[in-house]
Structures are given as C-alpha cells and as structure tokens.
Design a protein that fits this description.
Helix 1 runs antiparallel to helix 2 and helix 1 packs parallel to helix 7. This protein has a single domain, classed as LCP protein (Aminopeptidase, 3-Layer(aba) Sandwich). It is globular and about 65 Å long. Strand 5 and strand 6 form a beta hairpin. The strands form five sheets. A seven-stranded mixed β-sheet has the order 1-14-7-2-3-4-15. Strands 10-9-12-13 form a four-stranded antiparallel β-sheet, with helices on one face. Strands 5-6 form a two-stranded antiparallel sheet. Helices cover 34% and strands 25% of the residues. The protein is built from ten helices and 17 strands. By secondary structure, the chain is α+β, with helices and mostly antiparallel strands.
Length: 335
C-alpha cells in the first residue's frame, strides 16, 4: 500500500494527474465493507474529520488505519507467463488465504507506522463460531478478514488494499527492482530465493520469494542455518522490503518522473481497494505522513499448539501496542 501510494502521489506531483487518473479509475473495488470501515468520507463523498466536518485539504484528514493484504491467489497468471512454473496457477492453492496482513497507521500530525499481523496468529473468526489462524479468515473473503481485525482485535479500519502475487511481481519489475542488503548468502529452497551476500537488486520474482519466505536460510560458519524466528522473522522481512521499496520508488520517480505511467498501469491492474478510497487524496496525505517518519513494529507473540496446528498467540505487551493502532494509546518506543 505504501509503495502504491508513493507511485500515485508522485505521479500527481509531477503533473501526470490526468493520465494517472484514468488508470486509477480502473482499479477494482471491493464491495461489502461499508458497514465495517470507520468513516472518513460522508454520504456525499466529502472528506470529513471525526466530528463530521468537511475537509478541503487531504493533509487535514484525521489519523487513519489501512488494512494491507497480500493475497496468495494466483489470479491473473497464464501458462504463457515466464514465471508460471514458479508462481503456479490458480489451482496451486485451495481457496484463498492472506499471505501478508499489515495495519498501516497514518498520523494527522505527521509520521506513519506499520505492524504486521502474523498469518499464524490464533484469533476468533467472526461468522464461523470458532477460532483459527488469522490468514484463514480471508478464505471467507475480504469482509470476514476486515471483521476479524475490527471486531476481534479492536482495530478500526478506514481503508482496505489488496494485491496478489502477480501484481506484486509486476509492480516491483516496473519499479526496476528493489535493493535489499544480505549480510550472508541467503536462500529459501521452497520459495525460490537465492541471493549472495551484499546489497542486491531484486527483481519481482526474487522480491516475491523474499517476502514470502518461511524457510529462510543464511550460510554462516560453514553451514546453512534456518531462521528460528519463522513467521516473526518473515513479517520483519516484509516490513524491511516495504520500506526499501517505498524509498526506491520516491528516488526513481524523482529522477524519472515519466516512468510513473507504467507504474500506474501495473498498480491499477493489480490492486483492489475499498469503495470509499480515493487514491489521490489518500496518497497526498500518506506521502506527507511518510516524510515525517516511518516506524515498524513487531507484534509480541508466543508459540502454541492447538490440536495439530502450530499457532501464535498475543503475548505480553501486545495490548499496549494494539492500543496505539486502536487510537486508544500513545505510540510505543522501539526497544
């Protein structure tokens, strides 16, 4: 989402609003979320603050939370695609699951923060009469996932943004790749990640492998060592990638403003958003917040077992952290 907003906002800033607007209008909308989303747009489509006052400038929007979802659906991949064998077809997974779930908070007075919700987090799933890993909520659609975050975790969500595997790859490729630094030779045989030590420019497929890696290994002291933090390490790498990608997008579009045309095309073909989100207004507000600082949080969790499932549960300190994203507490310092 942050990368998407940077692309859209920078396009507008360099005078490409009209061309970008025609592309953004093609973005697919996710219906059925209006009763779950916290309001920042009134019935007439005007931006409003928490008291219902109409706002003229998007930078005056109150603090907002965006639910960012990376779907594991392979929708849009064809057998002619050169990466078909790696990504897989639409039958590669049964149903659909949320491979990545994050909450991005944009503050009115500047600054933005993000927290990852580990896919193995054990929570009550509204509408099912039971509990499951949070990524399973998406199997019931975006509405059930939003309901889980809002009702079970108590985090108000103002906007929803989703991108699938193919879209993620295409956006990174149009960006020209994203640079990630590896202290050691790194691999994930299952995901297809293979990188030497150093700061390397990842193409879309390797970026996807990095963001999805669940069996992440580094070659240290003469042997391959698997990351013992599992899903926790995975969420931290995803946050690292988003931050690097957003920085890279700003740098590239500042130097090559007309490159945004192809990026906007990739974004519009790959992203789904809620009915009320205006990409340009959100982009203007979010880009300003991002320039005021970007904080990455890890949710305190601990491992547990439910039946034959390995899961994660909320740990000590999670209430205080979630209270910030709920709008009920101050930002936490990172220890």
């Amino acid at each position: 989402m942050l990368l998407v907003m940077v692309v859209v906002a920078t396009s507008a800033a360099v005078g490409l609003t009209r061309a970008a607007d025609s592309r953004v209008a093609e973005v697919e909308r996710v219906e059925g979320l209006s009763g779950l989303l916290a309001g920042s747009v009134d019935a007439d489509g005007n931006l409003v603050d928490e008291n219902g006052n109409v706002l003229d400038d998007p930078v005056d929007l109150p603090s907002e939370n965006y639910l960012l979802v990376g779907s594991d659906t392979r929708e849009g991949i064809s057998q002619d695609d050169p990466d078909f064998g790696v990504i897989g077809d639409a039958n590669a997974v049964s149903g659909q699951r949320a491979d990545t779930i994050m909450v991005l908070r944009r503050e009115l007075d500047g600054g933005a923060a993000i927290v990852s919700l580990p896919r193995d987090l054990w929570v009550e799933i509204p509408g099912t009469g039971g509990s499951n890993r949070i990524n399973a909520a998406y199997n019931g659609g975006a509405e059930r996932l939003v309901a889980t975050v809002v009702e079970t975790l108590g985090i108000p969500i103002h906007h929803y943004v989703e991108v699938n595997f193919v879209g993620f790859r295409d956006i990174v490729n149009e960006l020209g790749g994203v640079t990630i630094c590896f202290p050691y030779p790194t691999r994930d045989v299952k995901a297809g990640l293979d990188q030497p030590a150093g700061c390397n420019l990842l193409d879309g497929l390797q970026a996807l492998a990095f963001a999805r890696s669940r069996t992440y290994q580094e070659f240290r002291e003469g042997q391959w060592r698997t990351d013992p933090t599992a899903d926790i390490g995975r969420t931290q790498r995803q946050q690292q990638f988003i931050s690097a990608a957003a920085d890279g997008a700003i740098a590239r579009l500042t130097d090559q403003p007309f490159a945004s045309g192809d990026l906007i095309t990739a974004v519009s073909a790959s992203v789904k958003v809620d009915d009320t989100l205006d990409p340009f207004l959100a982009a203007a507000a979010l880009k300003q917040s991002y320039s005021g600082g970007f904080t990455k949080y890890s949710l305190p969790v601990f491992s547990d077992t439910v039946g034959d499932k390995s899961v994660l549960r909320l740990g000590k300190g999670s209430t205080e952290l979630l209270d910030y994203f709920r709008g009920a507490g101050p930002a936490r310092s990172i220890e």
